[in-house]
Amino acid sequence: MSTSVKIAAMSLFGGSKLGTTSAPTFGTTTSTPAFSFGAATSNTANKPLFGSTTTAQPSLFGASTTTSTFAQSGGLFGSKPGATTSSTTLLSSGMKPAGLPGTSTTSTAQASQVSTVQDLIQNSECLIRSLTSPDLFGDERDGIVAKLNQLLSACGIGSGYYKGDQQPISYTTENPFYQFKAIGYSRRSDYCDSDGIVALTLGINYEQLSRAAQRQKFLDSMNLILGNNTNVLIYVTEKGKGRSSSKELCAFLKQPAQDTQLKNQLCVVNVLSRTVVDDVKKRAFMKNPPAGFDSQIWQQAVRENPDPDKLLPYPIRGFEQLRKRQELQAAEIRLEERVIEELKQRLVQINSKLTAGQNQCSYQRQRHKELSHRLLRCLAMQSLLQQYTISIDSDEEKLETRLEALNASLIAPDQIKSRINNLLAILHGEAETLKATNETRLKLTESDVTQIKRYLSRAQDALERVIDIVRESTNILDIVEAHLK
């Protein structure tokens, strides 16, 4: 399993035309071979189905050799007119004519000139002849060879003969008749070249970098490899020049010394520059379909892009690339599940800490109330002690004088108390007479009624104030009594 480090990015469009890399769905790549049919490898032990052991570009069915089944005893289907002993096998890869679709050339620009199926047909007469009318034996065996060539071109493997004195055509996954292909979407990079973002693909599991100590060890190794020119975000800077660009940093990390250190110390598989594609290259990429793809299908994929601002269509050739993308998607899903699980664990820890904090807050609040009550009791006791030791002041003497004056006015002759007693005596003495009388004998004028109302109102207000004072005093006494116990 490959682990992608967040200090860089992989190729935007995935693997190269030679099938040495494959682009993931989420913007990382791994250095695994492309589709197994016709992919170039360095394996020399694989044996082809038709032909001998290969040393270059082995495929599922065969590879280039120095001898041929056609060159021995007249070939696989009989005698081969005009054949030489130096020709290659029917399904092996020999000399590749320049400009033919599905063949490798010395210039990558030549391979990108042919863009549509129509152009491929016009510029590849040899390819069409190998699939429709090969001229090898001059009998019905040529039809069998044509069908076999069609099968090979559909699978993108091997080579096909079409004429005895001509070199065979190599069928790769980029030929227009290759059937096992599709179009996916890869995310664009948002970083500029000046940001200096580089992708490192690690050939280790995620668990080996999940701990803080392991990540710190990785950062220390990166800091050492980059010559201590890093900061917390691992931006590479140089004195007098500023931050290094992404391409410069990528070229530096690909130097033999740094590449060896990355592979030995950090298990780095690949290093790629992560930069955004400018609008001109983006339009050219979307306008010209990849080799082997029809322009209408490619333009349909461009139109049906679910997010044109962040995604770009990406060609997928063969089951190997599809399987690799599926594995990378599954790995990304597992990584996201791990992150979600870690977030859940953090949420549980935060909830437990929050609950503990709430409990501590409740305890401290209750403790604060208890201390407040103790403080009130102390203040009350201190106030009482001060009252016992301090003599009466002038304010209290004035209050006492006023209270004595009020008491004298109440108990003096012909005042409120005596009048109330007289009224009570009259009521008790003439109770029967008052009950028998149906009419009111009092004759009050309007001014008397007004005075009585005013007097009763003042008396009621005074009584209400007295009642409030009594209630407040009672409450205060209850509190003091409760604190004194």
From TrEMBL:
Subcellular localization, as worded in the UniProt entry: Nucleus
InterPro entries per UniProt: Nup54/Nup57/Nup44, Nup54_alpha-helical_dom
Cited PANTHER family: NUCLEOPORIN P54 (PTHR13000:SF0)
Domain Nucleoporin Nup54 alpha-helical per the UniProt entry, residue ranges: 289-425
GO BP: NLS-bearing protein import into nucleus; nuclear pore organization; protein localization to nuclear inner membrane
Gene Ontology CC terms: nuclear pore central transport channel
Membrane-crossing residue ranges in chain numbering: none
Alphabetized UniProt keyword annotations: Coiled coil, Nucleus, Transport
Keyword field contains DNA damage: no
Coiled-coil features, chain-numbered ranges: 333-360
A Pfam family per the record: Nup54
Main subcellular location: nucleus
GO terms of molecular function: structural constituent of nuclear pore
Name recorded for this polypeptide: Nup54 domain-containing protein
Domain of life, source organism: Eukaryota
